[in-house]
Amino acid sequence: MRAIELAASLFKQGLSSTALEGNDIELTEAAPLEAAGPTELSFVANAKAAVAAAESRAGCLIVPLDFAAGRTVIRSANPRATFAQALTMLYPAPPRAGIHPTAVIDETAEIGQDVEIGAYTVVGARCQIGDHVTLHSRVTLYPDVSLGARSIVHSGAVLGADGFGFQWTGQAYQKFPQVGRVEIGCDVEIGANCTIDRAALGVTRIGDGTKLDNMVHIAHNCQLGQHVVIAAQTGMAGGCVVGTAP
User: Which residue range(s) make up the domain with 190?
Assistant: First the structure.
């Protein structure tokens, strides 16, 4: 992709403030500032990176508005966000693969349009999957899990397993039946090996736009609001509430 084409597209989307400054070059890929070469794109997000940019060999930089002149640059009020959008143009998503033949899908599950389901994924009874959802390989959806449109679930995630509920009888622990469900909103991304337990009664909810890193555990009856972000290896006990209501 030509740098001038990239700059024009970003400008049209309102993500850059000016057209390309400097020489138009063919951009082959993106790279970290310290490793980028003459045909590669990188970005400058802060003052420390601006100092490092003096030594960078990057052919084109996405930079703050006040970055010094003299290089091939695309100026932006938010270089990191603009760079993220540029990556989607330099690395277009591959065509959606549809439903893999090894996936196991219960006949009562409802599958939306343009859904991708990876190898050895299991979708249980009465699950509902919205349009444009991606389930990567070896995802497990227990019965009564719903996923909103455009959500992404990475490999190894398990949604809808029983919550950790037991009642002491005086002699032993008796399992408290977990008869609730899980509701995932739209535009949610769930990392690899995450677990989200069904509610004991009622619903475990994950709000629209929420992002879970790898190996996050959400216990029964938790309520996560919209646009919540949780980093890796975080665990939440039953009934936690984070953010505004989904």
Answer: 104-242
